[in-house]
Amino acid sequence: MSTLKVGTIQDHANSITAISIDSGGRPLLSGQPCVAVQCTNTSKFGEDHSNTVYDISYKAPLPTFTSGTTTTQINRGGMTLTFPSYAGGNYAKIVVPVTGVYEYHFYGAARNHVMSDWWTHGLEVNNETASGSSSLTHNLWNFQLNNSSDQNDDEYISVNHCGIIALDANDYVVPFVQSVQNVNFDITNNKHGFILRQI
């Protein structure tokens, strides 16, 4: 029985660290592509043009990731994260560095302000263009306010969702929404965000 004691594992050609081991023996996967973003923006978004801060199209990038409300918690393994402008806000765009299978998880809780509204949340791959029609490429979550007793008031709802997606190197993903009338992330700690990582 033998023991291999190392603090760092690197690739042989470029000496780029893939795994580090801390003093407690825990592996730190610095080479594994992963990005995590958290946001505290509570401004309204949707197609209800007179009552929203971010006036978006029927199918659109989620525009809540503005610089003053957004924190990048993890960005490693060659992921490229940017926040292009849209509808007076910013959306997240993530370019992946390698071909593989990725896990996406979005978390948060939203307030739906329009009675009987149906809307959906998910991802677009290699598309960041808002549209007045069509459906999401990756529809990961749906909401329909269908309880008549709830229609007298607005509704607080969880928007947690996740999915597994195969991506090629240099593909990019963008969190999207569809058919939103008047919604904002506004409950308890007001945080929403996502993680995308290779698995």
List keywords for this structure.
mainly beta; five-stranded antiparallel β-sheet; six-stranded antiparallel β-sheet; 199 residues; Jelly Rolls
List the helices and strands and how they pair.
Layout lengths: L7 E3 L6 E5 L5 E2 L5 E6 L5 E2 L7 E2 L3 E3 L8 E7 L3 E3 L2 E2 L2 E2 L2 E3 L4 E8 L1 E4 L5 E8 L12 E7 L10 E4 L2 E7 L4 E7 L4 E2 L7 E7 L1
Parallel strand pairs: 5-6
Antiparallel strand pairs: 1-2, 2-3, 4-8, 4-21, 7-19, 9-12, 10-11, 12-19, 13-18, 13-21, 14-17, 14-20, 15-16, 15-19
Task: Outline the structure in words.
The protein is mainly beta and 199 residues long. The chain folds into two domains: 1-31, no CATH class; 33-198, Jelly Rolls. 0% of the residues lie in helices and 47% in strands. It is built from no helices and 21 strands. The strands form six sheets. Strands 7, 9, 12, 15, 16 and 19 form a six-stranded antiparallel β-sheet that branches. Strands 8-4-21-13-18 form a five-stranded antiparallel β-sheet, with no helix packed on it. The chain is elongated. The two termini are 31 Å apart. The model has no long low-confidence stretch (mean pLDDT 88).
